[in-house]
């Protein structure tokens, strides 16, 4: 095949089609537990985390309550995945051999947020959130006043144990437990000009995907982690703890735990606990959906 700019343009169109088809067809789970937030700069600061709007009877003038503010910043990171196609392969009409490679690039790009989001969830025991504590912790501060003043008491959203971690989440709110922040989308680009350095020096055409994204923690009150055995008693304790979570000032948050996230080793136990009805004898049947993403192991 005679390589011309038109041929290279048509080739990129074909490869981009393979990439986009795989990107579109790849199922993902991260949207179940994360809120996507657009970013227009190098980072986003979520000073409103920890603020929970409340209503009061309107008598007289409005009451503007001071709220505690937090400087929780998520800095965008750059990610890339690149491949090269030998010029000889194009000259010899072997371009179809590389179609699956671009399909895999599309799949990997689509799944990358899954990898980031569930990776952060796993790191919740050792990674801080907006209040300065680890996201899953036994010492989250709860203040007696809505402005974050007074002597704090400690609140736990973690149950210690020696087994694999499982997570109970409230994903019914606009703000989910994880934030997925996107500055630049996953786009396929090509470097195929005849005077490109790689073409001249290495006789290859380069293709790559890049994005600017990152993840951060939302509200710890909407998540609970346990490393104790996944039993009815421990599940009940996790639900009770979450339903008792309050905002600063003591107002109940109305948490509704409804998603049980487990590694593959606990999927069977999770489904027996909240899916199987046992002929009406399982009081926890239907109280949560089960999600077992491969990224948790």
Describe the protein:
The chain is built from 7 helices and 13 strands. It has one domain. By secondary structure, it is of the alpha/beta class. It holds the Pfam family Mu-like_gpT.
Compile the SSE list and pairings:
Elements: H1 5-25, H2 30-33, E1 34-38, E2 43-45, E3 73-75, E4 77-86, H3 87-91, H4 99-122, E5 140-142, E6 153-155, E7 158-159, E8 166-169, E9 178-191, H5 197-202, E10 204-217, E11 223-226, H6 232-243, E12 259-261, H7 267-274, E13 289-291
Parallel strand pairs: 1-9, 7-11, 12-13
Antiparallel strand pairs: 2-3, 4-10, 5-6, 8-11, 8-12, 9-10
Helix pairs in contact: 1-4
Summarize the model shown:
It is built from seven helices and 13 strands. It has helices spanning 5-25, 30-33, 87-91, 99-122, 197-202, 232-243, 267-274, and strands at 34-38, 43-45, 73-75, 77-86, 140-142, 153-155, 158-159, 166-169, 178-191, 204-217, 223-226, 259-261, 289-291. The longest helix is centred in the middle third of the chain and has 24 residues, at 99-122.
> Percent of residues in helical segments?
25-40%
- Percent of residues in beta strands: 15-25%
Extended strand count = 13
Instruction: Report the structural category.
Output: alpha/beta
Written as H for each helix and E for each strand, in order along the chain, the element string is HHEEEEHHEEEEEHEEHEHE
Major pleated sheet:
5 strands, mixed
Instruction: Please indicate the count of domains.
Output: 1
Protein name: Mu-like prophage major head subunit gpT family protein
Domain Bacteriophage Mu GpT: 8-296
InterPro entries: Phage_Mu_GpT
Pfam family, one: Mu-like_gpT
């Amino acid at each position: 095949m005679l390589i011309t700019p038109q041929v290279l343009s048509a080739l990129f169109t074909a490869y981009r089609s393979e990439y986009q088809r795989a990107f579109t067809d790849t199922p993902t789970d991260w949207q179940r537990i994360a809120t996507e937030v657009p970013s227009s700069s190098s980072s986003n600061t979520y000073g409103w985390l920890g603020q929970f709007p409340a209503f009061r009877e309107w008598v007289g003038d409005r009451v503007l309550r001071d709220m505690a503010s937090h400087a929780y910043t998520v800095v965008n990171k750059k990610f890339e995945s690149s491949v090269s196609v030998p010029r000889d392969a194009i000259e010899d009409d072997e371009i179809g051999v590389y179609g699956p490679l671009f399909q895999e690039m599309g799949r990997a790009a689509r799944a990358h947020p899954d990898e980031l989001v569930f990776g952060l969830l796993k790191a919740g025991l050792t990674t801080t959130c907006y209040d300065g504590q680890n996201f899953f912790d036994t010492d989250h501060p709860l203040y007696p006043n809505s402005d974050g003043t007074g002597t704090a008491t400690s609140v736990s959203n973690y149950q210690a144990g020696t087994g694999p971690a499982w997570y109970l989440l409230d994903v019914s709110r606009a703000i989910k437990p994880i934030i997925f922040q996107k500055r630049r989308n996953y786009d396929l680009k090509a470097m195929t000009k005849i005077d490109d350095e790689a073409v001249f020096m290495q006789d290859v055409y380069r293709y790559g995907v890049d994005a600017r994204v990152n993840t951060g923690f939302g509200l710890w009150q909407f998540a609970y982690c346990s490393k104790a055995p996944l039993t009815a008693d421990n599940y009940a304790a996790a639900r009770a703890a979450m339903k008792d979570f309050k905002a600063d000032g003591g107002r109940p948050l109305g948490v509704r735990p409804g998603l049980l996230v487990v590694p593959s080793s606990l999927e069977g136990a999770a489904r027996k606990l909240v899916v199987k009805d046992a002929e009406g004898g399982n009081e926890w049947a239907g109280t949560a959906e089960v999600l077992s993403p491969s990224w948790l192991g």
